[in-house]
Every structure is written in structure tokens, then in C-alpha cells.
From TrEMBL, chain A:
It comes from the Bacteria. The keyword Iron applies. This is Oxidoreductase. Residues 3-32 form the 4Fe-4S ferredoxin-type domain. Keywords: 4Fe-4S, Iron, Iron-sulfur, Metal-binding. It comes from Gordonibacter urolithinfaciens. GO terms for molecular function: 4 iron, 4 sulfur cluster binding; metal ion binding.
Length: 273, 846
């Protein structure tokens, strides 16, 4: 039981309110014994990563939050059991006094969530704003999120979200048991526009199927009124794409989403005769 | 930690609209004991009031509900504000330029390069007072230019701009720098002539439009509209929440812009990339497709419009032999003709509204009046005003105190605290100069123009004139007093302004400002003023979209360093002038107008309906009062539905009361104007501009620059916030020399040709000069276009025309000429540049 964070990419507009709120709360403010002041720059106890996906004119941006995962089996605690502790509510705290000089802790966190404060000589990270939680408030970053993309609360109250969630680094989830739960983490998209170059028209209603060459999985979509087709949240794979429409020769193209999202651009169809 | 985790909550409005208009109400926790600001938070409407008190509104559509929520939706531009209060750029004390000697050499040519020495307030004020007296006697009061417009902090009593004008009004006037309708140029100079819509030219009948779109709309066109950026300084994130709601409702969001702006990035269903300031071609091709395919609403035009036949004749090629086909447009605007046709057909088949904030360089480039009125032309062709087909805005929801511009359920009152306001109050001196023409007016008088050139004037004012500076019998300008020292990075052609500020005719420049930035470096005397955290004031917030508010702003901390508020600073000068007697006698008291600050705050409060609910003491204790939702808002007609249903009974404010595809006033007033004729056109070039890629200059400067309103600033404000500057992915690009360069977005295909990579430093340049920037190679910009936000802090290496700036303040190299011959707006985006990699380490050695 205890406190957890839920972060929903589908609701995040990338505003960085959370990131700046953390600065507002911790730079120049001393919340000892929980946290000493954060340096003005260079620390990202909460950081929004910007991922630009696709190619003109099919481009999306996804924002992914990076922060201390308040792991239930925290590698940082394992590395310094005397300097890092877990509160009863589950928040993991690097004790500013006991962790003095422990620069090694920066390396101990597999999520890059611990930062070295050179001036104070201490490792620092997100405290879950335990000082505010103890005063009956939510963390500052949570309070300022305009869309409820970042939430904080009791595990049991967020059970539904947790059930649907993924971990930021799935490979580590079993070992660390992170307690920041991610919804709608971006996968890949595959998209394009079906056109008839001879008529200089889009082919609305064209049927597009995409075959995953590794798994054999087949997805279907229809070109919309702009001739556009989209396959959202697909895997990183090689694809064979078929475009068909009444009176046209079927077109078969290869496309890859292995390295990045893919806008195939115009898929040209030619009349059957 | 002690026990003071939560601190004492006070209220501050942290919007940037200025002019005695407040927004972005925040709760601020202060630590009184230690004279310190702890944190900035959303303000809770429900702290002292219940949902019943607020008469809480909600919108319902398609089985889904939208509720505004009970706390303000503040942005990072508010949250970061401690960094502005404690900025290392704060001007610590009054200063004088080292080589400016009022008794000897004034060295105007050294402005912008020489240093400053500390002086006392007394010395500064007595220097300023003596200069005013001297200029009055030698040249007359109209030789003093006041630059007193500008956005910024939203203070009333301690008004950021225009306090000096109150003083000058008492001692014989001044010359006013009048600010053209910069935010709305195209709408003001163009759209007004087609559909009226005073005072600004955007739709001013917006009541209930959001609900109308939610219930009846199929699609919203975001035509140069970034809801995730420009409401930040102007209201907050309710607009962003509406975009999520539209998605939930299945309303298609189509973005038309050269870049993937921050809204497109997360909300768009479709992006149609269009080259900067070529929208007019795209629009004409849409009209062409509709006319050719018979898919526009001729019956509506028959009853709601005049002159459509003239427009049709032009579109189909009758006038110039060039039919405005999709193929014709494709070559200009870069949108494939098959997409233009698909788009035109989609629009004709569906209920489509157009959303803006203010329009971006769509309406802030050369000939901006054309795309603005073409938008109205297209809306008209599809039955403007019918359910789901309006134009609406995501910002400025109570602009000019008009209750018809609120597209959401309105509050019972738009609070007006004007009796508290001590800034410029639209007192219009006889002598004035459009802001776009200041450099010319300084260096090459006389200059002349039409109209008063100010947002808010009615359509007819554009034909008033010509006006001239200087007025007959008057001298040219010899002194400048600015509380808006960012002309260089905010207006058109800052390099020219740098020359004007160094011109020998300008004998004295005084600047009052909280931060050492931009034009401050051209001042002879600088007065340090302060932020709203350091003063007590009153504020309003009528742009959050939830409920309008009036609030009391307690002083958060003591004035920092040697600063005084803008109002107090001018007061000190008034005091210093008194020693000259005569017209200057008793000036301080006259300037203060007989009230104390507290009395002004109270007068502001008493001018609002809050005074009927509580007395001043209770107001100060609760610190805010929200105005509940107006009863019966559901019944208010949506948008232009009344005009749609009954054009005779509900006419537009045009001479005919209808949509004027042919403007008889433009035809009769400026019969020879080829750039803004009676019918909207595609304008290639004109006397002042050649900014097309396919014309001669385009060969030398092949890229079009997009210069948007910055996401991490409000114009010139906030450029120094370290918490933003360290965001390497989005805010600045650190060069090999460690300098934080303003980002330049370059498409991978152009980067490939130019040999550019993310992190490289480049020079954007044209005949007017060059500015540097840090490359970000990205798919967020279309090929042959580059993007760099506006408002970066000027850091010139070489001053004046042809100069070089390191800060990336691209306004320095924006065109000098105004929108067109008879439209005196600024051209600050959508202009030609070339781009070239530079070796900054080698450059530094030179
Ligand atoms: N390239 C490009 N240029 C543009 C535009 C564009 O789209 N692209 N848009 C244009 C538009 S719409 C606008 S509105 C203008 C904005 O132009 P401005 O309104 O002039 O810009 P601001 O930077 O908001 O404010 C003016 C000055 O007021 C200062 N200030 C803030 N608070 C205070 C205070 O309390 N006291 C004093 N004394 N000063 C204060 C700021 O620091 C700044 O120097 O820019 C225009 N320029
Ligand atoms: N954060 C922040 N908020 C602000 C301001 C600020 O400086 N910063 N300024 C305030 C002020 S004074 C104003 S006037 C408003 C301005 O509000 P707007 O005028 O709406 O803002 P812009 O950023 O100029 O332009 C909006 C979008 O237009 C698109 N665009 C640019 N050029 C073109 C073009 O040629 N054609 C088309 N179709 N689209 C184009 C870009 O995608 C851009 O994101 O914002 C206000 N709010
Ligand atoms: S994310 Fe890193 S710092 Fe946070 S609890 Fe896990 S290991 Fe420790
Ligand atoms: S919970 Fe507090 S410390 Fe952690 S990221 Fe949020 S604001 Fe920072
Ligand atoms: S505050 Fe919320 S919406 Fe904004 S970046 Fe953070 S999580 Fe995303
Ligand atoms: Ca229609
Ligand atoms: Ca000029
Ligand atoms: Mo503006």
C-alpha cells in the first residue's frame, strides 16, 4: 500500500508545469530534514522528455516524464541502506545528512533520477514532496498539472490505472518494482496518403492493410477524406503495405518502423487500364 | 524546515497583458518572517466560495460534459516568476551612461556600447528634470517622445507603462508613440473592411461558440493557432483542456501552419503545412474549387453579401488572366493540389469553424490584410454563422471589456478597476507617431500616415488623415522617455531603430525598467523599477475562462535593491521638477491625483460589483472575489447565428451591413492602392516588400522565416529564466562556446543540403543584417522554411543596419516598411532570409 504516481502520456501536453514546479518548490527553499535546497540548474528531479515522431506532414510529439520511481525494491537503498530510507507511505528519501559525500549514489539509480549537488556535497532527488504530503497537501508538481496527466495518491484508489499501466523501463520493472505508473507510453505509428497522381486527386476510401513481416500480424485501415491512413501504437517492425481501391491496380510497398515512426508519404495508385 | 512549510497565501495575477488588465491569478505562498516568496500555486476559487456561489457552469455535448474546475490553470510562465523577481538582470540602482555629459559631450554615437556608473535617485531625478525643462524651453514639449505601450506585468496602481504620460499631460503634453494593432494587423487592416467587427477585426460575436462547436461542429481549423503557447501568458490552460475535450467529442482538429506548433504536436488530427504568409494563395484555390464544383452557398451570399461576383471574377482569372487553381496555389504555398482539393471538399461537406488566438504571421506579415479578409470570404461562402460554422478565439475572452467576445459561459461581470489605474489612459496628444515609423520619424522627419494607429479605433479611422509628424511649427524629436525598452526585439527592423537611438538629434534618453535588457543599453539615465511582488495593488482576471475575478494583491516582499515602482519612479521626477516652479509647481501632488495608493486600490475595488457583496476590509481579508456565471447564458444566441438567420435584422458593421467582397470604402478612399484594393487578392510584391521565394530576392534569400510568439517567454519577458534556458531540447541551444543560442528549426532535407546538424550555430541573414541561432534539425518545420521564436534578448555584436546579433533577436532584421502603403502595421514574420553555418569560436576571435 502507500503512495504512488500515475503518469498518462495521452493527457500530457508537455507544458513542463511539473518540471518548473519542482524548481519553484525546491530551489532556494530548505525543507530539511527531508530535502536541502536544489541547485538553480542542472538538477531534474522531474523532467519531461520530448519525442518528435514521424516526418512532414505526419508528425506527432509525445512527452515522457522522467523522475524517481520510488521503487519498492530500490537499488539506491540497496547501495546505501544507511543513507536512503523508505517512509511508511512508500516515498523513498535520500537523507541529506546521512548521504553527505555519497556521490556514488548518482550511479546507483538505474533511472538517472539522483543528482549530485556539488555545493552542498550531497546526492539529491525527488522527495515526493514529503514535506507537503505531511502537511496534508499533494506534491507541487501534481498540484499544477492542468490535465490530471500526473496524479498522486493511495495505491488502492488508483488501482484501475495501475492495472492498465506499464513501467518506464519494462526490463527493470520486476527487479525494482517502480511506483510511478505509466499509461499510453508511445509506440510507433505507420501512416501515409493514398493518391492518384494521374488525376491529381487523393483516393478517399482506399483500403490499406499492413502486414508485420516478423509476426505476420495484419492491420487494416481506410483512407479518410484527405486520403490519409494511420496505424497508431504499432510495434517497431518491418511492414508490407497494400493499398487497394476500386478500379485501381493494387500497390504493394515496404515500410519500416524499426528505428522511428513512419510517414510513407504519397502511396500512388494507378488506374487498372 | 521549521513549521512554515505552507507559508502565508496571498494573491498575484501573473499574466502579461499589462494595460491595467490582469490575468493568470495565482496563489503565492510567502514567508513573512524571512521576507521571502516560497512558491507559486494555482488559486482556488472554492477556498471562500461554493459551487453554488459561483453558479458553476458546465457544457454538455454528445453525451459528454466539460467542467471548468475550481482552481486556476496556471502555466510555467507564472510558475517561474521567482526567477524574474530575483533575476541577476535586475537593475540594482539608478545609473548614468559614462560618456553622456549634459554639460558637455553627449556622445549619442556611443549609445549601445558604453558603460554605466551608479548614481543616486536624487541625482538621476534632477538630471531628468533639468533635461525636461531644457527640452521644453529649447524645442517645446512635443520634442519629447514617450514610449509607454507594451505588455508586461499587470499592475494597476503601480502601472508598468505610461505613468510618465500622466505627468507630461500636466506640463504641456508630449509626443506619443502610438502602437498600431500589432496583435491583429491583418484583421484590423483587412478583415474589418469585409465584415466590420470593430474594434479589432476578428469575430466579435463569439458568445456560446464553444458549445456550438461541441454540439454541431465536425471540424475546427487551427489556422495559425497555438493554444498550447499563447494562452500561457494570457489566461492559462483552460483552452488546452478544451482541445482535449474536442478530441473526446470526435471533432477533427486540422492545423494549417508552416510548423508543428505545440498544439499541433499533441492535439492535431491533420496538419496541412503551408509556407509562411502564402495562405492567401491556398485560400484562393479553395474558393476556386468551390466555385468550379458549385459547392459554396450561393443562396446565402445572395442575401448576406455584396460584391461576390467581383470576387468570383478575380478568382476564376477574369481580372488578370490567372485562374487561382490548386496547381497555381501549390507552386506558391507548398500544399499539394490534391490536398487543397480534398480540403476544399471536406470543408464544403462539413460544419467547420476556424479557431485562432490572434493569427500569427498569417496576419503579421506583408499584405497581411489579404489572408485575413480571404478567411472571411471563405467563411461566407460556406454560410458563416450557421450551426458549427463560426470564427472563434482561444484567448482574450473579454477584450476591451466586451461581453460579446466570450465564447464560454460568461460571468455576471467583467470587473473594471480603472479608477485604480495610474498608467497611460488613452489620452491622445495631438502629436503622435505610429510605432512602426519611429526610426524614420527620428532620422528623417517629416513622416506621414493615415489614422490614429491604435488597436481599438473603428474602421473609418483608417481613412482619417493624412497625419504628419512633426506638427506644423514643431521641432523634431530630441528626447525619449521609455518604460518599454524592447523596441529592437519586438518591432519591425530593430537594426534601423538602433541607428535612430544613436542619432545625433536625440540628446537624451531615459529608461525606467526592472531589468537590464534590450533598449536599456541605449539609455543615458536608467531608473530601476520593480516587480509586482514588491508592491501592493489590485488586480483582475477575466481571461481564465472559468470565472472572472477581482483580487487584492498584498505586497509579497520588500522592494529589492534600490528599486521603486514605475509609478513612484515617475513621482520622484515630478518632485524634482517642482523646483523650477511655474508649470511645474506642485507637480507631485497633481501627478498623484490627490489619493494614496491604498485609496486608489479601494477606488478600483469600489468600481466593481464586488463592492456590493463585501466591504473593502473583507475584500482585503478574503483577497479575492469571483463573479458567478451569468444566469440564462444557455439562451444567448451562438456566434453569428442571428446574422445567419436574419441579416437585415442583425446587420454587420460594414457600410452595407453585409459581407463586403467588394469594399466600396476602400475603392473610394484609396482608389489607386494596388496592394489593398477593394477585393482581396494575392499580392506578389509592392513598393515596400519583395518577400516571395519565387521572385528575385528569393534567389539570394531562399528561406522564409517563421517568428512566432515564444513558448518560453512573453515577447521580451522571461528570456533570462534559467529554469527554461537549461531545457536544451526546447528552450535554448548551447553552442561550443557555452553561449545559449535561440533555437532555429531546420528541416532534415535542408539541413542535409546545408550540412547542418543539431547544435550547430547558424547565421540568419538578409540585407538588413544577421542574427545567430542554434540549429535543431527537426520534422517540426516544413522544408524551405526556418523557424525562430521572437523576443530573444538582443546581444548585438555589430549595431545598426547590416549589423550582427548573437541573441537571435530576429526582429532586428525584419522589414522596415509597414504592412502596405496605407496599412501601417508591422511586418515581423514570414520574410526572407538565408541561413549559413558559422564557426562561433573563429567569430569570437575577430
Ligand atoms: N517577430 C515577431 N515580432 C512580433 C510579433 C510576432 O509575432 N513576431 N508579435 C507582435 C505582437 S502581437 C506584440 S503584442 C509585440 C509585443 O511587444 P511589447 O508589448 O512591446 O513586448 P513585451 O516584451 O511584452 O513588453 C514590453 C516591455 O515591457 C517590459 N515590462 C514588463 N513589465 C514591466 C514593468 O512592470 N515595468 C516596466 N517599466 N516595464 C515592464 C518588458 O520587460 C518589455 O521590455 O511584439 C510584436 N512583435
Ligand atoms: N507564451 C506566450 N503567450 C503569448 C504571447 C507570448 O509572447 N508568449 N504573446 C501574446 C500576444 S501579445 C499575442 S498578440 C498572442 C499571439 O497569438 P498568435 O498570433 O496566435 O501567436 P503566434 O505565435 O504569432 O502564431 C500562432 C501560430 O501561427 C502559426 N503560423 C506562423 N506563421 C504562419 C503563417 O504564415 N500561416 C499560417 N497559417 N500559420 C502561421 C504558427 O504555427 C504559430 O504557432 O499571444 C499572446 N500570448
Ligand atoms: S528511481 Fe532511483 S532514486 Fe528513485 S527509488 Fe528507484 S533507484 Fe532510488
Ligand atoms: S514530488 Fe516534489 S520533489 Fe518530486 S518531482 Fe514533484 S515537485 Fe519535485
Ligand atoms: S504538468 Fe502535467 S501536462 Fe504538464 S508536462 Fe507535466 S505531466 Fe504533462
Ligand atoms: Ca457547406
Ligand atoms: Ca521605417
Ligand atoms: Mo500582441
Amino acid at each position: 500500500m502507500g503512495k504512488v504516481f500515475v503518469f498518462d502520456i495521452a493527457k500530457c501536453n508537455g507544458c513542463r508545469n511539473c518540471q518548473i514546479a519542482c524548481k519553484d518548490e525546491h530551489v532556494d527553499n530548505d525543507w530539511s530534514p527531508i530535502a536541502r535546497p536544489q541547485p538553480d540548474t542542472g538538477h531534474f528531479w522531474c523532467r519531461i522528455e520530448e519525442r518528435v515522431r514521424g516526418q512532414v506532414p505526419k508528425v506527432r510529439v509525445s512527452y515522457v516524464m522522467h523522475r524517481c520511481q520510488h521503487c519498492a525494491d530500490a537499488p539506491c537503498m540497496a547501495a546505501a541502506p544507511d543513507a536512503v530510507y523508505r517512509r511508511e507511505d512508500g516515498l523513498v528519501i535520500v537523507d541529506p545528512e546521512k548521504a553527505a559525500g555519497r556521490r556514488d549514489l548518482v550511479e546507483a539509480c538505474p533511472y538517472g533520477a539522483i543528482f549530485w549537488n556539488g555545493e552542498l556535497g550531497i546526492p539529491q532527488k525527488c522527495t515526493g514532496c514529503a514535506h507537503l504530503v505531511d502537511a496534508g497537501e499533494v506534491p507541487h508538481c501534481v498540484d499544477v498539472c492542468p490535465h490530471g496527466a500526473l496524479r498522486f495518491g493511495d495505491e488502492e484508489d488508483l488501482a484501475e490505472e495501475i492495472a492498465a499501466a506499464e513501467a518506464l523501463v519494462p526490463e527493470r520493472a520486476a527487479a525494482d518494482k517502480p511506483r510511478v505508473f505509466y499509461l499510453n507510453l508511445p509506440k510507433r505509428f505507420l501512416a501515409g496518403v493514398v493518391v492518384d497522381p494521374e488525376a491529381d486527386e487523393v483516393v478517399a476510401g482506399a483500403r490499406v492493410t499492413a502486414e508485420n513481416l516478423a509476426t505476420g500480424e495484419v492491420l487494416a485501415a481506410e483512407a479518410d477524406e484527405f486520403g490519409d491512413f494511420w496505424f497508431h501504437q504499432v510495434g517497431a517492425a518491418e511492414w508490407r503495405v497494400y493499398a487497394e481501391a476500386e478500379g485501381y491496380l493494387t500497390r504493394v510497398l515496404e515500410a519500416s518502423t524499426v528505428d522511428e515512426d513512419r510517414n510513407m508519404g504519397p502511396v500512388e495508385l494507378y488506374r487498372a487500364e | 524546515m521549521g513549521n512554515n512549510v505552507l507559508g502565508t497565501p496571498i494573491v498575484k495575477g501573473l499574466g502579461f497583458n499589462s494595460f491595467g488588465i490582469g490575468t493568470n491569478a495565482c496563489s503565492v505562498d510567502i514567508d513573512e518572517e524571512n521576507d521571502k516568496i516560497l512558491r507559486i500555486r494555482p488559486l482556488r476559487f472554492d477556498e471562500h466560495y461554493t459551487p453554488e456561489d459561483l453558479n458553476a457552469w458546465k457544457l454538455e455535448a454528445r453525451g459528454k460534459t466539460f467542467e471548468p474546475g475550481f482552481k486556476t490553470l496556471i502555466s510555467p510562465l507564472s510558475l517561474c516568476y521567482k526567477k524574474r523577481v530575483y533575476s541577476k538582470n535586475r537593475i540594482p540602482y539608478p545609473m548614468k551612461r559614462v560618456d553622456w555629459d549634459p554639460e558637455g559631450e553627449r556622445n549619442p554615437q556611443n549609445r549601445g556600447t558604453s558603460g554605466y556608473v551608479r548614481i543616486s535617485w536624487d541625482e538621476a531625478c534632477s538630471l531628468i528634470a533639468s533635461e525636461i525643462k531644457r527640452v521644453h524651453e529649447a524645442y517645446g514639449p512635443a520634442s519629447i517622445l514617450c514610449e509607454l505601450d507594451g505588455h508586461g506585468e499587470t499592475k494597476f496602481v503601480h502601472a508598468p507603462h505610461g505613468c510618465q504620460s500622466r505627468m507630461f499631460d500636466l506640463i504641456g503634453s508630449y509626443t506619443l508613440q502610438t502602437r498600431q494593432p500589432d496583435s491583429w494587423e491583418g484583421w484590423y487592416w483587412g478583415a474589418k473592411h469585409m465584415w466590420g467587427m470593430d474594434p479589432l477585426g476578428q469575430n466579435s460575436q463569439m458568445n456560446n461558440v464553444i458549445r456550438d462547436v461541441a454540439q454541431n461542429g465536425d471540424a475546427v481549423l487551427f489556422w495559425g493557432c497555438d493554444v498550447e503557447t499563447t494562452p500561457l501568458g494570457w489566461g492559462g490552460y483552460l483552452a488546452s483542456r478544451l482541445c482535449y475535450w474536442f478530441t473526446e467529442l470526435g471533432i477533427k482538429q486540422i492545423h494549417i501552419s508552416p510548423d508543428v506548433n505545440y498544439t499541433n504536436a499533441v492535439h492535431a488530427d491533420k496538419w496541412i503545412p503551408v509556407k509562411p504568409n502564402t495562405d492567401a494563395a491556398l485560400q484562393l484555390a479553395i474558393a476556386y474549387t468551390w466555385i468550379k464544383e458549385g459547392t459554396y452557398d450561393q443562396a446565402y451570399l445572395d442575401t448576406h453579401a455584396v460584391g461576390f461576383e467581383n470576387f468570383k471574377y478575380y478568382v476564376m482569372g477574369g481580372e488578370d488572366g490567372v485562374p487561382k487553381t490548386p496547381k497555381w496555389a501549390e507552386a506558391i504555398c507548398g500544399v499539394p493540389s490534391y490536398t487543397i482539393k480534398a480540403f476544399a471538399r471536406y470543408w464544403a461537406k462539413h460544419a467547420v469553424s476556424i479557431a485562432h488566438c490572434n493569427g500569427g504571421s498569417y496576419i503579421r506579415s506583408c499584405y497581411a490584410h489579404e489572408p485575413a479578409r480571404l478567411e472571411v470570404a471563405l467563411l461566407g461562402m460556406q454560410g458563416l454563422g450557421k450551426p458549427g460554422a463560426n470564427q472563434f478565439k482561444f484567448i482574450e475572452w473579454t477584450l476591451y471589456g466586451m461581453d460579446t467576445v466570450t465564447p464560454l459561459p460568461p460571468s455576471v461581470e467583467i470587473p473594471d478597476c480603472s479608477p485604480a489605474y495610474r498608467g497611460w489612459y488613452r489620452s491622445f496628444p495631438k502629436s503622435f507617431i505610429p510605432k512602426t515609423m519611429i526610426p524614420e520619424a527620428i532620422m528623417n522627419p517629416p513622416v506621414s500616415w493615415y489614422g490614429h494607429i491604435g488597436a481599438g479605433f473603428p474602421r473609418e479611422d483608417q481613412f482619417d488623415g493624412p497625419y504628419t509628424f512633426p506638427l506644423e511649427g514643431n521641432e523634431r524629436l530630441h528626447m525619449i522617455w521609455s518604460d518599454t525598452p524592447c523596441w529592437e526585439t519586438c518591432w519591425n527592423g530593430g537594426n534601423e531603430m538602433q541607428e535612430a537611438l544613436r542619432h545625433p538629434s536625440i540628446e537624451f534618453i531615459v529608461v525606467q525598467h526592472p531589468w537590464m535588457e534590450n533598449d536599456c543599453f541605449f539609455a543615458d539615465v536608467i531608473l530601476p523599477t520593480n516587480t509586482k511582488f514588491e508592491t501592493e495593488d489590485i488586480g483582475t482576471d477575466s481571461d481564465n475562462g472559468q470565472w472572472n475575478l477581482v483580487y487584492y494583491e498584498r505586497q509579497a516582499i520588500k522592494p529589492r535593491l534600490e528599486s521603486k515602482s514605475d509609478m513612484e519612479a515617475v513621482g520622484e521626477v515630478a518632485r524634482a521638477l517642482e523646483k523650477f516652479g511655474g508649470i511645474y509647481e506642485n507637480l507631485y501632488e497633481r501627478y498623484m491625483g490627490g489619493k494614496t495608493c491604498e485609496e486608489y486600490i479601494q477606488a478600483g475595488f469600489e468600481n466593481t460589483g464586488a463592492a456590493k457583496k463585501m466591504d473593502f476590509e473583507e475584500f482585503k481579508e478574503k483577497q479575492y472575489y469571483p463573479f458567478p456565471t451569468r444566469e440564462g447564458w444557455e439562451e444567448m444566441p451562438a456566434g453569428l447565428i442571428q446574422f445567419y438567420e436574419d441579416p437585415e435584422g442583425h446587420p454587420l458593421q460594414t457600410p452595407s451591413g453585409k459581407l463586403e467582397y467588394y469594399s466600396t470604402t476602400l475603392a473610394s478612399q484609396f482608389p489607386d492602392d494596388k496592394e489593398r484594393g477593394p477585393i482581396p487578392h494575392w499580392v506578389d510584391e509592392g513598393a515596400g516588400h519583395q518577400e516571395r521565394q519565387y521572385l528575385e530576392r528569393g534567389r539570394k534569400y531562399p528561406f522564409l522565416l517563421v517568428s512566432n510568439h515564444p513558448r518560453w517567454r512573453v515577447h521580451a519577458n522571461l528570456d533570462d529564466v534559467t529554469w527554461f534556458r537549461e531545457m536544451e531540447e526546447t528552450c535554448k541551444v548551447t553552442g561550443p562556446d557555452g553561449y545559449k543560442y535561440e533555437p532555429v528549426w531546420v528541416h532534415p532535407s535542408d539541413a542535409g543540403l546545408l550540412g547542418l546538424e543539431t547544435g550547430d550555430i547558424v547565421k540568419l541573414h538578409n540585407e538588413r543584417g544577421a542574427v545567430l541561432g542554434g540549429v535543431r534539425v527537426t520534422e517540426r518545420i516544413m522544408p524551405s522554411v526556418v523557424y525562430q521564436d521572437h523576443g530573444s534578448r538582443v546581444d548585438s555584436v555589430v549595431l545598426g543596419r547590416g549589423g550582427l546579433d548573437r541573441g537571435g533577436a530576429n526582429n532586428l532584421i525584419a522589414p522596415y516598411a509597414t504592412t502596405s502603403t496605407h496599412a501601417f502595421g508591422e511586418v515581423t514574420s514570414g520574410f526572407l532570409v538565408n541561413i549559413e553555418k558559422v564557426d562561433v569560436l573563429a567569430l569570437a576571435e575577430q
